[in-house]
Design brief:
about 220 residues, four-stranded antiparallel β-sheet, 3 helices
């Protein structure tokens, strides 16, 4: 005589269906690229620059939707591999040298952006962000670095990045952004201390980051 498994009750069948559906959803979520990735926050703090605030493109750029700014996902000196930023960030010991490097990148004279072409990602109007633009992407839910680590992978854990904002009281000073804690402060433009750079372009003028006027040529401010 053949032994058959007992037919499950209606309740058991419903539980089995729910478990199967949950398993399928988990498999699908795992398979979708980026669907399970999110900025790593400390102590369940709500992120200030959540993943959905960015449009991430395969060319190594990310557009910050609240401001319309397009950012390089990597520091100058690093190379975008298609999935992450490889290599080490270039260092600059003077603000002027950094500004000249941006000019050379846009002109195709320098390849510090690592793409082997003039400009980056098809654009030749990259510039150094002003300090308000830097603060617009500060991630308050984490530190070391204080940036969205999904949007900006392999960012320096603790480093001062130049901004384009000169101090209004002293032309020898410039504002810098610290990626460790997301703080801003003044430094000398030429102090022989290595600094880092990350570039930006565009902006829709809808946020408080916008400067009131141009101070320098070539769009630097």
């Amino acid at each position: 005589m053949t032994t058959h498994d007992p037919i499950p009750s209606a309740t058991e069948a419903t539980v089995m269906i729910h478990r199967t559906a949950a398993l399928l959803l988990a498999i699908v979520a795992f398979a979708l690229p980026g669907s399970v990735e999110a900025v790593s926050c400390s102590s369940n703090v709500t992120p200030s620059t959540p993943d959905e605030d960015f449009q991430i493109d395969a060319d190594g750029t990310a557009q910050h939707l609240p401001t319309g700014l397009m950012w390089m996902r990597c520091d100058l000196g690093q190379t975008w591999t298609g999935t992450t930023c490889a290599g080490s960030s270039a260092t600059f010991t003077s603000w002027g040298a950094g500004m000249r490097a941006v000019r050379d990148i846009n002109a195709g004279v320098s390849d510090l952006d690592g793409d082997g072409a003039a400009g980056f990602a098809g654009h030749v109007d990259w510039r150094v962000p002003n300090i308000k633009e830097w603060l617009s992407i500060r991630e308050n839910c984490r530190h070391t670095p204080a940036l969205n680590n999904i949007v900006f992978p392999n960012a320096p854990l603790a480093a001062s990045h130049y901004s384009s904002t000169t101090d209004d009281k002293s032309p020898m000073m410039v504002w810098r952004f610290d990626t460790q804690f997301g703080s801003a402060g003044l430094i000398l433009k030429d102090d022989n201390i290595p600094r880092f750079m990350r570039l930006v372009r565009g902006g829709n003028g809808s946020s408080s980051y916008v400067a009131t006027g141009r101070i320098f040529a070539h769009g630097f401010e």
